TrEMBL record:
<dbReference type="InterPro" id="IPR019888">
    <property type="entry name" value="Tscrpt_reg_AsnC-like"/>
</dbReference>
<dbReference type="InterPro" id="IPR019887">
    <property type="entry name" value="Tscrpt_reg_AsnC/Lrp_C"/>
</dbReference>
<dbReference type="GO" id="GO:0005829">
    <property type="term" value="C:cytosol"/>
</dbReference>
<dbReference type="InterPro" id="IPR036390">
    <property type="entry name" value="WH_DNA-bd_sf"/>
</dbReference>
<dbReference type="InterPro" id="IPR000485">
    <property type="entry name" value="AsnC-type_HTH_dom"/>
</dbReference>
<dbReference type="InterPro" id="IPR036388">
    <property type="entry name" value="WH-like_DNA-bd_sf"/>
</dbReference>
<dbReference type="Pfam" id="PF01037">
    <property type="entry name" value="AsnC_trans_reg"/>
</dbReference>
<protein>
    <submittedName>
        <fullName>Lrp/AsnC family transcriptional regulator, leucine-responsive regulatory protein</fullName>
    </submittedName>
</protein>
<keyword id="KW-0804">Transcription</keyword>
<feature type="domain" description="HTH asnC-type">
    <location>
        <begin position="3"/>
        <end position="64"/>
    </location>
</feature>
<keyword id="KW-0238">DNA-binding</keyword>
<dbReference type="GO" id="GO:0043200">
    <property type="term" value="P:response to amino acid"/>
</dbReference>
<dbReference type="InterPro" id="IPR019885">
    <property type="entry name" value="Tscrpt_reg_HTH_AsnC-type_CS"/>
</dbReference>
<dbReference type="InterPro" id="IPR011991">
    <property type="entry name" value="ArsR-like_HTH"/>
</dbReference>
<keyword id="KW-0805">Transcription regulation</keyword>
<dbReference type="InterPro" id="IPR011008">
    <property type="entry name" value="Dimeric_a/b-barrel"/>
</dbReference>
<dbReference type="Pfam" id="PF13412">
    <property type="entry name" value="HTH_24"/>
</dbReference>
Length: 154
C-alpha cells in the first residue's frame, strides 16, 4: 500500500490521540471529513491500523515496579522455545517477550508488578518453574525519560 502525506499525518495523529473525532482529525490534516474517514477506514482494512487501545496509568493501578528480565534456556530447540513462549504468554505481568541475539540470554522480558514481594512471587512461582529456564537476570527500572508506543512515521 502506498502512503501519501495525508496517510502519514493520519497515522501520526491517531497513534497519539486515538480518541480524536473524525472532524478534529480532518481539520488537523486540512482534509474534509468524508475523504478523511475513507482514508482511516482504508488504513484499518489494510491492517496498518491494527487496533485501538486505552493506555492505563500503571501507578494508579498499584503497578509500580517495572523489570527487564533476561532468560537463558538450557536447550536451544524449537520445542523448548515454543513451550517457554506459550507459558510466558499466559502471564499478565509480562508486557513484552522478545527472543534476542547478541546477549548471554535467549529472551528479554518486560514485566510490570506491584512491588518486590510481588516480583519474588512472580519469579519463584511462575517464571523459574518453567521447564527449560536455566538462568534469570533481572534489572529494575528507576526512571523512564522516554516511554512511548508511538512509532516514527516517515
Amino acid at each position: 500500500m502506498q502512503f501519501d502525506k495525508y496517510d502519514r499525518l493520519i497515522l501520526d495523529i491517531i497513534q497519539k490521540k486515538g480518541r480524536i473525532s473524525n472532524q478534529e482529525l480532518a481539520e488537523a490534516i486540512n482534509l474534509s471529513p468524508s475523504p478523511c474517514l475513507r482514508r482511516v477506514r482504508q488504513l484499518e482494512e489494510s491492517g496498518m491500523i491494527a487496533g485501538y487501545v486505552a493506555l492505563l496509568d500503571a501507578r494508579k493501578l498499584g503497578l509500580t515496579l517495572v523489570s527487564f528480565i533476561q532468560i537463558s534456556m538450557d536447550k536451544h530447540t524449537p520445542e523448548r522455545f515454543n513451550h517457554f513462549e506459550k507459558q510466558i504468554a499466559a502471564f499478565p505481568e509480562v508486557l513484552e517477550c522478545h527472543l534476542v541475539t547478541g546477549q548471554s540470554a535467549d529472551y528479554l522480558l518486560k514485566v510490570i508488578i506491584k512491588d518486590m514481594d510481588d516480583f519474588q512471587r512472580f519469579l519463584l512461582n511462575k517464571l523459574t518453574p518453567i521447564e527449560g529456564v536455566a538462568g534469570v537476570h533481572s534489572s529494575f527500572v528507576l526512571k523512564s525519560p522516554v516511554n512511548t508506543r508511538a512509532l516514527p512515521i516517515n
